[in-house]
Structures are given as C-alpha cells and as structure tokens.
Amino acid sequence: MQLTLPVHLPINQQFDSFIVGDNQLLISRLKSMLAGTAASKELYKEPRQVFIHGGKGQGKSHLLYALCHFAESLGSQSFYLDLNQECKMPTSLLEGFGQTTILCIDDVHKIASHRPWQIALFDLINQRMEQQSGLTFFTSNSPPGKQDSHNSEDWLPDLVSRLSWGETYAIRPLNELNQISLLTYLAGQKGMSFSGQTMSFILNHCERNTQSLVNIIERLDKRSMIEKKPLSINLVKRELNL
Predict the structure, then answer these.
(1) pLDDT mean across residues, the chain
(2) What whole-number distance in Å separates Cα of residue 136 and Cα of residue 156?
(3) Cβ distance 34 to 135 under 8 Å?
C-alpha cells in the first residue's frame, strides 16, 4: 500500500522562472514529452524515462518541480519524490507509483549503499515498464553508473542498467551572462535592484551555481529589510562577513 506524503511544490519554481542558458534542447525535449503524453495516451503508451544529471545547485530539483507544475497545467497526474528525504522511510513508500502518469524522482545519488532502496527502485522501474506507464524523470549528481562513489559495489548493477534506459541529459552550468540574468530576475522578484558594481561583487565573492545565487539573494533581501537599507556593496560585505 502506498504511503501518503504531504508534497508541497514551490509555486515559483516553474519553467518560466528557470534560466535556460545552454539547456534549451533539454527544456524543449521535456515539454514536448509531457505535451505528447497529455495529448495522446495511445501514441505515448510506451514507458519512457529521462535521467538528468549535473553538479550541486544547478537546478535539477527546479526542473522536476517545473515538470510537475507543467503536467498539472496539461491535466496529467504527477508526483515528486526526493530520495534525500524518502530514503529515511520504508521502501514501501514506492508501492503504488507503478501507474503514475508523470513520476519525478530527485537525488538518486542519495541511495548509494542503500541496497533495500536500490532494489525497491529497480522493482518500480520494472513495474512501470510492464504496466506501460507514463514518464519517469530522474535526477542525480552524476550519470548512471558514475555516481558519487568510488566503490562500484555501492550500486546494484541491475539498477544502474535500468537507470540507463531512455534518454540521459547533463545540465549545462550557467555562463556569466546567464548568472547576471538569474540575479536580476531574483532581485526583481523581491523588488530589489543593484548596480553593475554590486552585481560583479556578488559574482566574485559567491559560488556561482544556481542554488547559491538563489540563496544569496534570499539572504540579502532579509538583511536589507532588517537594516532598512538598499542593496549595496557594503551591505553584501556585511552579509558575507568580508
């Protein structure tokens, strides 16, 4: 029996708020797959899956949230699972997802060395194949078979094989222009603005992956409200203890 999970997807993490950069092919492919599944269950009855990998903070979870929101807008059933959290729960949690139309499974690398969870995920993939269920999307820090482990025995070979089915994509990191676009968008969402010098200072003193840039804008927004001062290089310095 499937366990019921309270899943609340961030409403602001959709395709419209994802800074595409050099990932246009991936985004177009994901939207096309969802639209095709919603339009014709017969045409897309063959189960398919996509494995998306990329470094920490590059927007993998954002993409899965966006997929769920997009599926909902198309009238398709979807569900999001984060293995970073769920692997602490019984593997019976996966029971019942065999026929979920759109299933998004985040942080596959978190079940390294968790053999019961690897077996459960292996069984779920097989079940979805046998039942010709919709689409399955996985994310991980590394491609299948090259997970964050130097010990190949940490991974069930059959699971690695199953995860290699379907299509595999790497998220390409944002370049500097994309990072500027992201900071500008995030600041605009908060009603904030900053000079080019402040922008350059932030980029030169913070990690440049997507999640880090999101976090620093959140922190600067809070400090700006506490101090009742506009965003400036000095305010950034205080927040970063520089």
Answers:
(1) 85
(2) 19
(3) yes
Rounded-to-integer distance, Cα 67 and Cα 73, Å = 10
Continuous segment of H or E residues that includes residue 52: strand 48-53
Outline where DSSP puts E strands in 78-189: 78-82, 102-106, 135-140, 167-170
Give the model confidence (pLDDT) of 32-56 as tens digits: 888 877 655 544 555 589 999 998 8
CA distance 146 to 50: 16
Give the 3-state secondary structure of residue 97: coil
Please say whether the beta carbons of 149 and 139 come within 8 A. no
Residue 143 has a CB neighbour count (10 Å cut-off) of 17
CB 67 within 8 A of CB 102: yes
Residues 103 and 136: beta-carbon distance below 8 Å: yes
Question: Structure tokens of 242?
Answer: 């520089």
Angstrom distances, CA of residue 3 to CA of 54, 89, 91, 118:
29, 10, 10, 18
Reported as a single tens digit per residue, the pLDDT across 165-177 is 889 999 998 899 9
d(CA 18, CA 12): 10
pLDDT at 3 (0 to 100): 42
pTM of the model: 0.83
Query: What is the sign, positive or negative, of the torsion defined by CA atoms of 83, 104, 109, 8?
Result: negative
Interatomic CA distance for residues 74 and 228, integer angstroms? 43
Q: Which two tokens stand for residue 52?
A: 């998306």
Residue of 126, 154, 236 whose CA lies nearest to 187? 236
